[in-house]
Amino acid sequence: MANFYFKKFVIKQSDSAMKVNTDGVLLPAWVSLPSEQNYSQSSNEGSLFKVLDIGSGTGVVSLILAQRLEEELFKTTPNSIDKSNLGFSITAIDVDKDSYLETKYNFENSIWREQLEALHISLQDYCAEQKVKLDRFDLILSNPPFFTNSLNAPSHKRNIARHNCALPLEALLNSSALLLTKRGILAVILPIAEGETLLEMVSKSNQFEIKRVCKVKTLLKRPAKRYMIELSRSQTLKSEQIIAGNKNKLLREETLVMQKEGGEFYTNQYNELVKRFYSKEFKIKSI
User: How confident is the model over 149-158, as a mean pLDDT?
Assistant: First the structure.
């Protein structure tokens, strides 16, 4: 198994697994912290902040978020939290058995093992189960399948991970609307084309409102490669918030530039976002 070293955990990954990639680091590093989502007013019993990671892969998204949640909780109330009983839980699901097994292994060997759970199940089946259990989440994260119009990859595993035949965006939205609390947040990272499609779908529905949008540029002078999007459950909006019949108003629109011109130097903006997680130090060139 190959090892990927982060500051507070190690990801072990077999040759057959989906690779640890930048998308899986950016999304949990960027998503709003619980304090920005009314953590103290969690809709869940006992104010336990509950997270669902859809398509867990190796578990890196959940592990980075666990680190952020622990750091935030200790920052706000450092003397009153028992580290063995932190006030959050993360459930990670994956339809691919190998990915589930690697998520489970990495969870069990992390310092947050008591807060993390890995399940081998599709989102659709999990959603059907939750209709009975009525379990709800404060935050749902997903680095979902993409490349809607691309040719299928030779590997069945890569087809599941890269194509939305396994998880259409519509299914992701509908399932998330069912699984989230009333104040819940759905955060995703997508290629630009799929991100535009998602935003258009949201604008035509009454399930979600757009909270944050970040365009990710790998190079300063190149077009953006990714969208990171936060959606909140729809609430009643004041009339002045409705623009040209569209109830969705971007509350925060951002751009993240990773490198100015390639090579070994990264921007300070990117470094500030991810430096708490990577074990390596990045060489910085300001833009």
Answer: 44
At residue 90, what are phi and psi to the nearest 5 degrees? -125, 125
DSSP string over 139-187: EEEE-----TTSPPPSSHHHHHHH-TTSS-HHHHHHHHHHHEEEEEEEE
Dihedral sign for Cα 10, 60, 193, 149, please. positive
Q: Dump pLDDT digits (tens) for 186-203.
A: 999 999 999 999 999 999
| Cα–Cα nearest to 195, from 165, 229, 223, 167 | 229
Residue 198's nearest CA partner among 138, 125, 130, 146 is 146
Residue with tokens 């390639």: 262
pLDDT tens digits for range 22-53: 999 999 999 998 666 544 445 555 578 999 99
Q: What does the alpha-carbon distance between residue 33 and residue 218 come to, in Å, rounded to a whole number?
A: 24
At residue 51, what is the residue type? V
The class level of CATH for 2-235+248-284 reads alpha beta
- pTM score: 0.85
Rounded CA gap, 21 and 8, in Å? 18
153 vs 139, which has greater pLDDT? 139
Identify the DSSP state of 78: T
Two structure tokens written together for 259: 């490198």
Backbone angles phi and psi of 163, in degrees to 5: -115, 140
- Provide the residue count of the chain: 287
User: Coil, strand or helix: which one is 189?
Assistant: strand
Under DSSP, is residue 211 helix (H, G, I), strand (E, B) or coil?
strand
Task: List the structure tokens of 95.
Answer: 């339809």
Contact 156, 66 (CB under 8 A): no
Domain ranges of the chain: 2-235+248-284
